[in-house]
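Entry 12.
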Amino acid sequence: MTNPPEQQQFKSASSNRFVVPGWTNLVPGKPDTVEIQLDIDSRDKERQQAVLLIEYWATNEELTLQSLLPTRAFVAAGQDGWCIFVPTQGRVLVRAIDAQPDPPILASHWINIDPQTVPGTVVNVVVKFPDAPTPIQNLLLNNNN
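Predicted 3D structure (tokens):
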């Protein structure tokens, strides 16, 4: 039996961030010219259940790639952080999900990539989960009066 070769972990040449696996060469014939940097708040790196769901839509009808990035990956990356690369077309959806609190947390952000975007453009997505509701806030949310 042979062991599969270890996947090489790519890093951005300009930012030294780790590239989420699979997030290069998304559209044949279109170079990856936009770097989207994912920055998670330091307090949220300790969440146990949280993930970022990242989607790339080359067209409105075509989901091209979807990845889950757990918050613990940000701890593992240290100061380097994470990024993705996309061509100058399509849309990127970043969803922050934490199923642990009640009610669960879900926040979404669309990034529309204009075909006229200058190559080398860097976009920062800052992710900060809202604080979990306190017991008093939960009572107020569940009050049907």
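Annotation: Residues 135-141 form the longest helix (7 residues). The radius of gyration is 18 Å.
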